[in-house]
Amino acid sequence: MAIEGKSEKTSGPIRYGMVGGGQGAFIGGVHRIAARMDGDFQLVAGALSSDPARAKASASELGLDPARSYGSYAEMAKAESKRPDGIEAVAIVTPNNVHFPAAKAFLEAGIHVICDKPLTSNLADAKKLAALVEKTGKVFVLTHNYTAYPMVRQARDMVAKGQLGDIRIVQAEYPQDWLTEDLAATGQKQASWRTDPKQSGVGGASGDIGTHAYNLARFVSGLELAELSADLDAFVPGRAVDDNLNVFLRFKPVGKAPAAKGMIWASQVAPGHENGLKLRIYGTKGGIEWVQADPNYLWYTPFGLPKQLITRAGAGAGPAAARLTRVPSGHPEGYLEGFANIYQEAARAIRAARKKNGKPAKDVIYPTVQDGVEGVAFVEACVRSSKKNAAWTKL
User: Fold this and answer.
1) Is 176 within 8 Å of 270 (Cβ atoms)?
2) Which of 60, 230, 254, 359 is deepest in the core (most CB within 10 A)?
3) Is residue 251 a contact partner of residue 261, using CB atoms and an 8 Å limit?
C-alpha cells in the first residue's frame, strides 16, 4: 500500500473504459456508480461483453458512442491508445481468467488499470503482471474496496500508532450462504463462472471472498504472513472449487515481540449469512472489532477499561478516517461509498501521474499489484496446504 496524502483535481474528469460489466453483470454496475460518485471519471468506451451483440446492446443502454463500443479488449486497447481523446484508464470487471490478458493489453498500450480482485487466476500470471506494471510505470489499482471504509482506515491508524500494543491475534471471517445449493446448475451467471476453475482459478470461496478477508487482515494489522495451514472443502457435490475454508495463520515477528497468530474463516455455504465480513485484532494493550454490516462503527477496548464505540465522523475518529468521509456523523456510509473511495484514490494517483510525466503517485492509499500478487499466492498456498492435510505452507 502507498502512504497517505492528497492530490487535487486537474484537467477535468478522467476518461475511462470498461472491460466486462455488461448486461447481467453485478460488479460492473458497482464500478460505474463508484467511478462517477465524486465526478472524477467519465465512461467513454467499453468492451462490455465477450458476446459482441450483448456488448453493443450494453453500450447503448449506457449511452456510449457506438464507435467506441468494442468487440474485444484487444481491439479497444489498440483503438483507444491511438485516439487523441482516448481513455486514460480502464476498469476490468470480468471473470478472473480475463484479468491478466486484458490488463497486459492496456498496460502495454500506455493506459492505467483499475482491476477487480483477485488479480489473476494463477500466481505465474500475477508475477508477470507485477513486472509489467513496474516496467510501464502505470497506475495499477486493485479494487479491494473494504480497505477504503473510513473506520477500517481508523483501525489501521490505531494499530500503526501502537494503541493496541504488540499484536497477538488477528481474526477475520467472511461467511455467505448464496452457494449453499448448486446454483450453477440453474445457469446463474455469477455462480457459473465463480465455480468453474477455468474461469475462477484454483480457488473458489478462497479466491472470491477469502482474499478479501486476508487482504483486510494484512491491511489493518500491518503484519506479514510467514506461513499458513488451510483446510478447504467443496461441500456441494460435484463442485470443482472450494466453498468453505478454515485457515490458521502465523505472521512474521515484529521486533522482539512474539509472532502474532491468526485465523480466517470464509464460506459461501453458511445459511443465515449474507455478507458477513468481520475483523478482530487483539494486542497487549487492547483490541478492536469491525463488522462490514455496521461499517460506521469501530469497537475499541483498551485493556482493563470499558469497551468504547468510535463512530465515523464522531468523537475519537481521526484524520485517517476523515479523509474518506463524505457526510456528517449519523448518516450511514457503506459499500458503494467504500468502492467510490477506491476510485477517488485511483483518481488522485492518475492526476498526479498527469503532472509527473507519467510517473504514478506515491502519496495515496490503494491496493496495488503487489497486494494482488500476495492475494493469489494466498489462494494457491491454501490449496497446496489443504491437499497435504492442512500442512503448514509458505506463500
Assistant:
1) yes
2) 230
3) yes
pLDDT at 24: 84
Round the CA-based radius of gyration of the chain to a whole number and report it: 21
pLDDT tens figures, 212-229 = 999 999 999 999 999 999
In this structure, how many other beta carbons lie within 10 angstroms of the beta carbon of residue 202? Answer: 20
140, 155, 272 from 291: Cα distances, Å: 28, 12, 16
Q: Considering the domain 150-328+376-387 in this protein, what is its CATH number?
A: 3.30.360.10
- Its sign, for the CA torsion 21, 26, 29, 30, is negative
Question: Can you tell me which residue has the cell 503532472?
Answer: 355
User: In sequence order, what are the residues at sequence separation of 6 or more whose Cβ sits closer than 8 angstroms to the Cβ of residue 12?
Assistant: none
pLDDT value of residue 362 = 67
Domain parsing of the chain, residue ranges = 14-146+338-364, 150-328+376-387
Three cell numbers written together for 89 = 484508464
* CA 300/CA 303 separation, integer angstroms: 10
Q: Does the domain spanning 14-146+338-364 belong to CATH 3.40.50.720?
A: yes
Strands 261-267 and 140-142: unpaired
Mark the ranges of the chain whose per-residue pLDDT is less than 50.
2-10
d(Cα 166, Cα 379) in Å, to the nearest integer? 27
Instruction: Give the pTM.
Output: 0.94
**Distances in Å between the alpha carbon of 364 and those of 2, 65, 198, 319, 351?**
6, 33, 35, 14, 11
CA distance 343 to 252: 31
pLDDT at 354: 87
Nearest to 320 by CA among 242, 220, 248: 220
Q: List, in order, residues 6 or more apart from 111 with CB less than 8 Å away.
A: 77, 80, 81, 86, 87, 88, 89, 90, 138
8 Å CB contact between 130 and 373: yes
Q: Dmax of the chain from CA atoms? A: 65
Rounded Cα–Cα distance for residues 243 and 236 (Å): 8
208, three cell numbers:
472470491
Q: List, for residues 77-92, the tens digit of each pLDDT value.
A: 999 999 999 999 999 9
